[in-house]
Write a structure and sequence with these properties.
The chain is α/β, with parallel strands linked by helices. The chain has ten helices and 15 strands. Bound molecules: pyridoxal-5'-phosphate.
Length: about 350
């Protein structure tokens, strides 16, 4: 039986990667903002359509540094329908997450519920563009301006997504993209921050390199979160194929939709108007279907298809957070209990999608 996993990392050919890392063996410059790092930084920034970009060894540390660079304090309004990283970044920074519920269609923060959660302690909103769906960036921007709050987007899922012709990383104060192996675009591990205010760079750069501001001065308590040359080389290689990869994902999504649309008890993500999507995930919510989510997942795995209960549990149900923080999130909880993300990656064939759908529908 051939196994189909929920995702498969995109990679260049072995030869192509070897060619890309050859200069490293000649220069012996392995990390600390080397020439490949800088070339990749420029190329990924222009692909994302952003003014400023800083590269990191992973997305999570990038998120933590965004929080530090913006000087956040007190409470941060966020959602629990996300990967552990978002909530951990807030708590690990000594801040208090306040959980806002999500929109039942897009699974992103319900912007109409943000204002009621704002107090004198609130310093920021940290929404998540979930599965490749974009948040209501305009409404969030209006609220942030009205209450003088910072906005950090967890953009881990939205590499390459645009609203109109504007790159998604150009909204809010800072956005964090993850380049983890399982994401639409990878540098093995890796990530970046994008931001429109160039002056932030003077905080972000030292924070990712021990707070070092010049050879003999350390002006802030920093960490080590630099991207190395081997990661950047993988990024340069993968960037060449990103449009092709996203096009293949789009075909897989089309094949799924052709079979699963308009079936009683199966709810698919909406196609957001005016948004260039990246088809990062294919989430399906089972509500009133003849089998529940867990039964479908079980049946699929018996047939060698490994879908994922993503995001389950939601972060405010984790044992380390349960009952500790403010905010009711019944919509997020319900989606989390009924959602399954089906296999989705560049190269997933139409026949494979058909096979997966047949198992579900039978
Ligand atoms: C992957 C992911 C992260 C963390 O990124 P890493 O690069 O793995 O550290 C953060 N938030 C979300 C929503 C993610 O999916």
């Amino acid at each position: 039986m051939t196994k189909i996993n929920v995702t498969r990392s995109s990679m260049p050919s072995y030869e192509e990667y070897c060619e890309a890392i050859k200069p490293i063996f000649e220069s012996k410059w392995l990390t600390n903002m080397g020439p490949i790092h800088n070339e990749f930084m420029d190329k990924v920034g222009s692909y994302l359509g952003v003014d400023n970009v800083s590269l990191f060894t992973n997305g999570h540390l990038a998120l933590c540094i965004a929080i530090r660079a913006l000087g956040l304090t007190g409470e941060v309004i966020t959602t629990p329908f996300t990967f552990a990283s978002t909530t951990h970044a807030i708590v690990d920074s000594g801040l208090t997450p306040v959980f806002c519920d999500v929109n039942p269609d897009t699974y992103t923060i319900d912007a109409d519920k943000i204002e009621a959660l704002i107090t004198d302690e609130t310093s920021a909103i940290m929404p998540v563009h979930v599965y490749g769906n974009v948040c209501d960036v305009e409404k969030i921007d209006t609220i942030a301006k009205k209450y003088n709050l910072k906005v950090i987007y967890d953009a881990a899922h939205v590499f390459g997504v645009k609203i109109g012709d504007r790159g998604i990383g150009s909204f809010g104060d800072v956005s964090m993209f993850s380049f983890h192996a399982t994401k639409v675009f990878n540098t093995i591990e890796g990530g970046c921050l994008t931001y429109s205010n160039k002056s932030l760079e003077s905080k972000i750069s030292p924070l990712r390199n021990f707070g070092i501001t010049s050879p003999e001065s350390v002006d802030m308590v920093g960490t080590n979160a630099k991207m190395n040359e081997f990661q950047a080389a993988m990024g340069l290689c993968n960037l060449k194929y990103i449009d092709e990869n996203i096009a293949e994902r789009k075909l897989a999504e089309k094949a799924y939709r052709a079979r699963l649309e308009n079936i009683d008890g199966i709810k698919l993500s909406p196609v957001q108007e005016g948004v260039t999507q990246n088809h990062a995930y294919f989430p399906v919510v089972f509500e009133g279907f003849k089998y529940n989510r867990d039964e479908v997942a079980q049946k699929l795995s018996e047939n060698g298809v490994f879908a994922r209960k993503y995001f389950y549990p939601i972060t405010n149900e984790f044992s380390c957070y349960k009952g500790k923080y403010r905010g009711e999130t019944p919509v997020a909880k319900k989606i989390s209990e009924n959602v399954l993300t089906l296999p989705m990656y560049a190269g997933l064939t139409e026949d494979e999608v058909k096979m997966i759908c047949d198992i579900i529908l039978k």
